[in-house]
Amino acid sequence: MLYNFRQTKQKEGESLDSYHTRLRQRAKTCEFTNVDKEIKEHVLTSTLSSLRHLALRENFSLEALLKHGRALELSEKQAKDVEKTEGDAASSINNQKKAIDKAAPAIDMHACAQYRSNFC
Q: What confidence category does residue 118 fall into, taking pLDDT thresholds of 50, 70 and 90?
């Protein structure tokens, strides 16, 4: 059913490979003369804009498009992991600083100045 194929959208968090598999399954019920071409066009209109921009500059086959899509997914995942790690590290440092500040006794700056003046 062509309508079902055209209505297929990539789900939140779904990998490009899983999406491609779903499209290929739905394409079986359609009478496409060139299944790869139809899947490629559908992927381009319904997936990551960064992949779409890349594919519009180059004339990729479906297989090449999927390969580049996998690379984009991997780099996005790695970037998110790095950002999370950096955020966790910054949060840990802030928590340690707060704990040290809380544990350190308050310094009376006036008393400190008087103490130093006695030795000059």
A: low
